[in-house]
Amino acid sequence: NLIWLQGEWHAQKDSILFIETWKMHDDSTMLGKGSIVEGGDTSVFENLQLKQQKDGLFYVVNLTNKPNAIYFRFIEQKTNARAASFLFQRVDTIANSLFQIQYEQLLNDKMRVELSMPDAKQKELLEFKQVK
User: Fold this and answer.
1) Distance in angstroms (rounded) separating the CA atoms of residues 28 and 97
2) CATH topology of domain 3-130
3) Alpha-carbon span 79 to 82, nearest angstrom
4) Average pLDDT for residues 92-119, to the nearest whole number?
5) Given 3-state DSSP classes, what are the helix, strand and coil percentages for the chain, each rounded to the nearest 5?
6) Which tens digits make up the pLDDT trace of 60-73?
7) pLDDT score, position 93
8) Domain range annotation of the chain
9) Residue 36 burial by Cβ neighbours in a 10 Å radius (0-12, 13-18, 19+)
10) Can you give the pTM of this predicted structure?
């Protein structure tokens, strides 16, 4: 259950502001928007979806500069007393590489998002605070 994602989330890393907003669209879809703001300019913008389909739950990314959506399949949920995490992955069979996105719900209106990409030397980790 990812209903807790609803709202607006901000993460600050150096001089860069990461913003995600999420809202329920219908019983099977949440719609989101992601942007990166640096020096007052938005440098990346993406439309996001969490979609429940017959063959599973998907995290869908539509970048403004790319014609095709990128689908990540939900593969794992972990829950304990302090957090709940949701892991999505995409396997690129052509490049033989694995991409992962993990959303972790933390206490006090916070979440952690971790991105793992094959060409990156380390994982990208962002700590978000819910602002709305």
Assistant:
1) 29
2) Lipocalin (2.40.128)
3) 8
4) 84
5) 0, 70, 30
6) 999 888 888 988 99
7) 66
8) 3-130
9) middle
10) 0.84
